[in-house]
């Protein structure tokens, strides 16, 4: 639906017609034409009308109307909303350019002719045209549909249809011997049913749509019938009615032949009858497909804890709902492994062939189809069953594979897959829908990094301010909610369980792309096979996956808001076409990886630009015209050749994230692995700056650094001893800092940080360079050391065992030591660093013994030892590390490699003698060592 588009525009209009904005705009509107004077009133009328349309569309969505007339009208609404968004952005830019003193900061001139073609007359004319079109559009809907009152023209089938998708045993195509890949979960669920605890227990089975929750529970529900006195399966939907749920539950308990009795009962009678029946029996109740935890509490009001070991099983896609169960009573279902997915597919595709073996000529294509299902049992079963009815032809299978998403949408034998997957999107809160669809712009299996995604969402205007929280924190909450709703899947977390990167399930992404096309949200451009695929009409955003031709003929750049390129070979004539003034509404421009050295001066005309990423390019210089990008929030030039910014960049007052550095040593073994940007004059005036990575210290900048009081992440390099007193003073003024990286001028410079103090604890601290005596006992460490979560100490050449110095950092989860110690022994005593999950020990040239006592490092999961040439034996006591999952041993002495047979308790071991990794599961490690020994 169009609500997501409307909400964004309504929010922008709300800001534009707010008192503060109009106060600033008043001098600009005075003594202008009647149309200009009426601009605020017109925008208010448009906002009100869009709010009513939004409410209307919500009613349509609830009832599930998909008529062609309504879809056409919605497309027209969306187009008008986009037009109005352009008008609002122009107006806000105009006011911002001509801002007066106040929260918009100081004004150089009270009135200044706006650059390019933007004028108040143009803005007012366009707003008036939108207002008239909206009035006509509202009349049009009444001409072509019946009045909304009573909703008589809208079929009331949404609730019933959703329940039918999850009727118990709906998918009868999976039998007992076909529960591939979920045997362990089945045994776990059965064990939970038969826990000795006689009290009523709630069990939660959760995971994304189509993952097999209902199938698993239905199998156990059927097979465990004899252990319960009565049972009931109730399918829940987002729009359920409590009395209907209780009525269905009672009918299941009494038997369908007695349904008439339940139909006549009111709410109080249903409650009383259910409690009466359940009071003396051990019961099993299934609440299938629950969307809200509160719903469980309401429904289970009638369930009696009779001390007979009764059980309630809840299936859900949402982690928050699953959290109502105790930790020992939750099962999360994951996609099937490649092996199990292939077995399940073959069972359904070749039911009559012995051992369900795929013919050799179909294997390649079959595995491509299975790969697109990405381990989702629902899709594997449905597609396999459909293909079992078709001719077993490689050509037909290839065509089917190429058209899989179209088949899911149009083939009546497969559309249940699409409906179940789309339910998750349909039930998303409106504030999450744009964020979710945005993730579909990235390539298949692309790792979505938390920080990048959050900054993009903010630049797009998807994040609404709430209270005093930063928009970054609010956006991270959105991201976590999408994970909890099984819409995105976590690939990697850091050592203190913060999400680092995610991915989208392949099928979910494909269906999301279809939704993007329908809503003109974006185009995913790919002409690999000579044709453009997944191109939407009049898209606002373009993601270029592969581009062999000139893209300009396929895209209307005048309405474009986002251009992201993933094809690093894209020709300059293509990307440069999105920088001139006809693309002036661009909010996001990501050209990372492209072979470009300069940007045209016309980039300064992109008044709406909020996010500019030029990572991994050859850019050496930025045009001074960029000083006009007053809306710019994120500027990223990581791994480029640019190390200087013009002083005019101090005008970019809305800049929140500045990331610039150049790789110097690609081996990352020297003190200066990378170079940082020079601190330009006025950098400290960017008061909204939250991330500054990396900046070179100067005497003036270090003194002014305290003005950047909103900083959350700071990496400052080239620190001299003479800077340290002033640096400590400036850092003491930063109340939001959570990540700090301090690097000395060179490996001989002394970091004199013994007086370091901060007003708040840090999450991460990196110290690179020699440390003055007492640094690790500074006020910061004595006050907040036990709150530090991640620390790196490098090139400090400590003579004493650093573990003893770090002992007070009791909550540390990640520790990295590089060139940090000149001694020969590293000892970890019992109860030391009990929360540490990750340890990296690198370039400790004198260390010849590592001793781990029993009871030390009890939480360690990851160990990396790199370039410890004198270490010839594996760490003593490594057998005590029972929680370790993965270990890396790089550039080690050959004698060390021969001792690795004692590491058989570590699931994954990666090792090398010369720097090139070799990997081995411990089941094969002895064979690998024998081969290595023979080689020596």
Describe the structure.
The chain has 936 residues and is α/β, with parallel strands linked by helices. The strands form five sheets. It has a 19-stranded mixed β-sheet that branches. Strands 2-3-4-1-5 form a five-stranded parallel β-sheet, with helices on both faces. α15 (338-349) runs parallel beside α17 (377-388) and α22 packs across α23. The longest helix has 30 residues, at 68-97. The radius of gyration is 31 Å and the shape is globular. It starts with a helix and ends with a helix. Residues 100-116, 147-160, 168-173 and 922-936 have low confidence and may be disordered.
Short description:
The chain has 31 helices and 31 strands. By secondary structure, it is α/β, with parallel strands linked by helices.
Search tags:
single chain; alpha/beta; 936 residues; five-stranded parallel β-sheet; 19-stranded mixed β-sheet
Major beta sheet, specifics? 19 strands, mixed
Q: Quick one: how many beta strands?
A: 31
Q: In which range does the helix fraction lie?
A: 25-40%
Radius of gyration: 31 Å
| Chain-averaged pLDDT | 85
> Based on CA inertia axes, which overall geometry fits?
globular
Poorly predicted regions are: 100-116, 147-160, 168-173, 922-936
Strand content: 15-25%
Structural class by SSE content:
alpha/beta
**Tally of alpha and pi helices:** 31
Give the end-to-end Cα distance, rounded to a whole number of Å: 67 Å
């Amino acid at each position: 639906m169009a609500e997501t588009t409307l909400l964004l525009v309504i929010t922008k209009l709300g800001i534009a017609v707010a008192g503060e904005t109009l106060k600033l705009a008043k001098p600009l509107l005075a003594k202008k034409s009647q149309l200009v004077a009426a601009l605020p009133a017109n925008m208010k009328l448009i906002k009100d009308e869009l709010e009513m349309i939004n409410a209307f569309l919500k009613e349509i969505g609830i009832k599930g109307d998909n008529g062609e007339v309504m879809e056409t009208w919605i497309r027209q609404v969306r187009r008008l909303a986009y037009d109005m968004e352009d008008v609002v952005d122009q107006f806000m830019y105009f006011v911002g350019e001509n801002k007066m003193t106040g929260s918009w900061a100081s004004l150089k001139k009270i009135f200044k002719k706006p650059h390019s073609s933007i004028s108040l007359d143009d803005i007012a004319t366009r707003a008036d045209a939108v207002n008239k079109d909206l009035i006509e559009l509202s009349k049009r809907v009444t001409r072509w549909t019946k009045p909304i009152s009573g909703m008589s023209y809208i079929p009331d089938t949404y609730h019933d249809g959703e329940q039918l998708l999850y009727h118990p045993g709906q998918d009868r195509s999976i039998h007992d011997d076909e529960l591939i890949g979920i045997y362990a979960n089945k045994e776990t669920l059965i064990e939970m049913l038969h826990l000795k605890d006689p009290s009523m227990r709630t069990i939660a089975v959760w995971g994304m749509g189509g993952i097999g929750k209902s199938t698993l529970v239905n199998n156990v529900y059927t097979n465990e019938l004899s252990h319960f006195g009565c049972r009931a399966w109730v399918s829940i939907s987002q729009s359920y009615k409590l009395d209907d749920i209780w009525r269905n539950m009672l009918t299941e308990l009494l038997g369908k032949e007695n349904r008439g009795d339940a139909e006549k009962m009111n709410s109080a009678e249903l409650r009383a009858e259910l409690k009466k029946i359940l009071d003396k029996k051990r019961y099993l109740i299934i609440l299938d497909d629950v969307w809200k935890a509160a719903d469980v509490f309401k429904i289970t009001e009638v369930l009696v804890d009779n001390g007979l070991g009764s059980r309630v099983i809840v299936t859900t896609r949402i982690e928050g709902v699953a959290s109502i169960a105790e930790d020992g009573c939750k099962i999360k279902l994951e996609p099937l492994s490649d092996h199990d997915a292939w077995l399940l597919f073959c069972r359904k595709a070749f039911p009559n062939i012995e051992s369900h073996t795929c013919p050799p000529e179909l294997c390649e294509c079959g595995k491509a189809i299975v790969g697109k299902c990405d381990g989702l049992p629902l899709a594997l079963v449905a597609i396999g069953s459909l293909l079992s009815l078709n001719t077993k032809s490689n050509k037909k299978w290839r065509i089917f594979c190429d058209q899989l998403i179209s088949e899911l949408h149009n083939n009546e034998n497969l559309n249940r897959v699409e409906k179940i997957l789309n339910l998750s999107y349909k039930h998303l809160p409106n504030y999450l829908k744009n964020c979710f669809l945005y993730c579909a712009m990235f390539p298949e299996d692309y790792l979505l990094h938390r920080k990048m995604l959050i900054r993009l969402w903010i630049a797009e205007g998807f994040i609404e301010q709430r209270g005093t929280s930063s928009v970054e924190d609010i956006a991270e909450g959105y991201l976590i909610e999408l994970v909890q709703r099984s819409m995105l899947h976590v690939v990697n977390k850091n050592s203190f369980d913060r999400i680092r990167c995610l991915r989208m399930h392949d099928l979910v992404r494909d269906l999301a792309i279809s939704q993007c096309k329908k809503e003109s949200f974006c185009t995913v451009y790919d002409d690999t096979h000579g044709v453009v695929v997944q191109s939407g009409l009049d898209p606002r955003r373009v993601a270029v996956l592969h581009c062999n031709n000139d893209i300009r003929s396929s895209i209307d750049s005048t309405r474009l808001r986002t251009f992201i390129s993933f094809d690093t070979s894209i020709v300059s004539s293509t990307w440069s076409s999105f920088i001139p003034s006809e693309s002036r509404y661009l909010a996001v421009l990501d050209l990372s990886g492209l072979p470009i050295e300069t940007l045209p001066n016309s980039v300064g005309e992109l008044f709406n630009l909020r996010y500019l990423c030029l990572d991994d390019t050859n850019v050496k210089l930025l045009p001074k015209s960029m000083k006009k990008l007053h809306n710019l929030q994120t500027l990223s030039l990581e791994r480029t050749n640019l190390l200087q910014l013009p002083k005019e960049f101090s005008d970019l007052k809305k800049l929140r994230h500045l990331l610039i550095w150049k790789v110097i040593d690609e081996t990352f073994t020297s003190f200066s692995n990378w170079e940082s940007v020079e601190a330009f004059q006025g950098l400290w005036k960017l008061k909204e700056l939250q991330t500054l990575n990396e900046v070179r210290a100067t005497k003036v900048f270090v003194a002014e650094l305290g003005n950047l009081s909103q900083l959350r992440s700071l990496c400052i390099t080239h620190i001299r001893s003479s800077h340290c007193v002033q640096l400590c003073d400036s850092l003491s003024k930063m109340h939001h800092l959570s990540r700090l990286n301090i690097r000395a001028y060179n490996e001989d410079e002394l970091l004199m940080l013994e007086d370091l103090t901060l007003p708040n604890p840090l999450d991460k601290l990196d110290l690179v360079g020699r440390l003055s005596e007492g640094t690790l006992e500074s006020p910061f460490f004595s006050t907040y050391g036990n709150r530090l979560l991640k620390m790196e100490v490098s090139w400090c050449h400590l003579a004493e065992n650093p573990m003893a110095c770090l002992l007070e950092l009791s909550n540390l989860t990640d520790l990295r030591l590089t060139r940090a110690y000149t001694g020969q022994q590293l000892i970890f005593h019992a109860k030391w660093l009990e929360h540490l999950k990750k340890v990296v020990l690198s370039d400790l040239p004198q260390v010849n013994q590592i001793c781990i006592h029993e009871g030390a490092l009890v939480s360690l999961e990851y160990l990396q030892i790199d370039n410890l040439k004198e270490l010839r034996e594996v760490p003593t006591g490594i057998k005590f590390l029972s929680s370790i999952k993965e270990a890396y041993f790089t550039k080690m002495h050959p004698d060390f490699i021969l001792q690795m047979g004692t590491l058989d308790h570590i699931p994954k071991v990666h090792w090398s003698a010369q720097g090139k990794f070799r990997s081995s599961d411990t089941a094969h490690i002895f064979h690998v060592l024998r081969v290595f020994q023979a080689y020596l």
